[in-house]
Structures are given as structure tokens and as C-alpha cells.
Input
Amino acid sequence: MKEGCGPFQNLPVIKCECGAEILLIRQVELMSKAINSHVEEHRARVSDSIKADVLAKRIEDHLIKQVFEKIQVHLSNI
Ligand SMILES: [Zn+2]
Output
């Protein structure tokens, strides 16, 4: 039995620039809800609505990009 290289070493999570982790799940709707609610958390901390929009867009892009990267890694492992 080999130890130290189990399948759970790389849990499928995406990371926000704030350090928060969002678990990658198969249910697309739940996944997009999780991303949206995290984006909204960031938006709520910014009082200037234009700045909040720019920030929200950047964070959303950053998170969604990682979703696609993870999916690609997954596909190449099949
Ligand atoms: Zn965040």
C-alpha cells in the first residue's frame, strides 16, 4: 500500500484572490450560485457602485477561469 499520494490531495476547489475556497461541484446551477454569492460578498464591501461592479467582474472572471482550468485537467485525466 502506497501512502502519501491519495486521491484527495488535490480537492477540486477554486480559490478567490481573498483566499476563500469554493468547492467545485458537478451541479452547474449550485456552482454558479456559490460563485455569485461570493462575488456579492465582495461587492457588498465596496460602497462605490462603479468600483463594486469592476471588482465583482474581476473576481467572477478569476473564479470562472479556474472552473474551466479544472475541467480541462479533469478531461485530460479520463
Ligand atoms: Zn473572495
